[in-house]
Specification:
The complex is a heterodimer of chains A (157) and B (130). Chain A is mostly helical. Chain A is built from six helices and two strands. The radius of gyration of chain A is 44 Å and the shape is rod-shaped. Chain B has one domain. In chain B, helix 1 runs antiparallel to helix 2. The chains are: A mainly alpha (157), B alpha+beta (130).
């Protein structure tokens, strides 16, 4: 068995998680001190990383932490911005609806200004409360007027 | 026996507004119905021009229930106006008795209907045609 074949076996064993500490140290040393070629370049880097106490992991963690740290802030910021925008949009929509409704209601109600109902001796003159009754009465009045017009037309023949 | 009486009267147009409908209006303006015991509901609708606020039409409606005294007063008031109306229609089919009185300038349509123990008086003054 050549040295390279032995190392291949150890690499397989390492990848399977069956190597001893001594075998792992052997792998680290061999990859560190040998020019392994391009096909094993990744393995060389991997064992160098393990031998150095997996520094890359710390390096990766640091940026991750750095990245993760601002993320919640950014997310929070975006949530805050979104919330403010949502509230602003809601206010605008509500204001628009309210103004539209209020104006239309105001117009409708002002059409009937001066109307009232007295029922059982109690006077009701809040137009918004009696609006339905007033409109129904006006419809009845319109029908009476139509009949009256027919009557007038017939009488004038 | 079903009876139908239709009577039209054409009177001199342009009768003084002060005379027209005064008996009925006086009753409607009064507070006969303005108490709990009167068994009445009175509605007054004022319809205005939405742009100018000018009154287009005034409509009143009085519903009298089980109040023969008040019903009698209104019948008498209508009868008192009969001579001055432009168009008068009176119908009685035994169950329903109604009277329509119409004046012009401004156009006024007064109507009452009695059915059983209920009387409905409807008046409208049209100041501006819609």
């Amino acid at each position: 068995m050549t040295q390279r074949e032995h190392i291949e076996q150890l690499v397989e064993k390492f990848l399977d998680g069956r190597t001893t500490n001594a075998e792992e140290r052997e792998l680290y040393a061999w990859f560190r001190s040998n020019d392994v070629g391009e096909e094993w370049a990744e393995l060389k880097a991997m064992f160098a990383w393990y031998e150095a106490g997996m520094p890359e992991q710390k390096v990766e963690q640091t940026p991750q932490l750095e990245l993760r740290s601002p993320r919640p802030e950014r997310r929070g910021l975006w949530i805050a911005v979104g919330a403010v925008a949502g509230v602003a949009a809601s206010v605008v929509v509500a204001l628009t609806v309210w103004l539209t409704f209020d104006n239309s209601q105001h117009n409708d109600l002002s059409i009937y200004a001066g109307s009232y109902i007295v029922d059982g001796g109690i006077r009701y003159d809040n137009i918004s409360d009696i609006e339905g009754d007033i409109e129904a009465m006006l419809e009845r009045a319109d029908r009476i007027e139509q009949s009256a017009d027919e009557l007038i037309a017939w009488a004038q023949l | 026996m079903k009876r139908l009486i239709i009577l039209f009267m054409f009177c001199v147009m342009g009768m003084s507004e002060g005379f027209a409908q005064q008996h009925i209006d006086a009753l409607l303006r009064g507070d006969l119905y303005n108490n709990k015991k009167s068994n009445t509901t009175f509605r007054m609708a004022v319809k205005r021009d939405p742009v100018t606020g000018e009154v287009i039409k005034k409509v009143s409606e009085l519903v009298v229930r089980d109040n023969k005294a008040l019903m009698k007063k209104f019948i008498e008031a209508f009868k008192a106006e009969q001579a001055g109306v432009d168009v008068w229609q009176e119908q009685d089919n035994g169950n329903v008795y109604d009277v329509t009185a119409i004046w012009s300038k401004p156009k006024r349509i007064y109507k009452f209907r009695i059915s059983g123990s209920v009387m409905v008086i409807s008046t409208q003054v049209i100041y501006k045609e819609e």
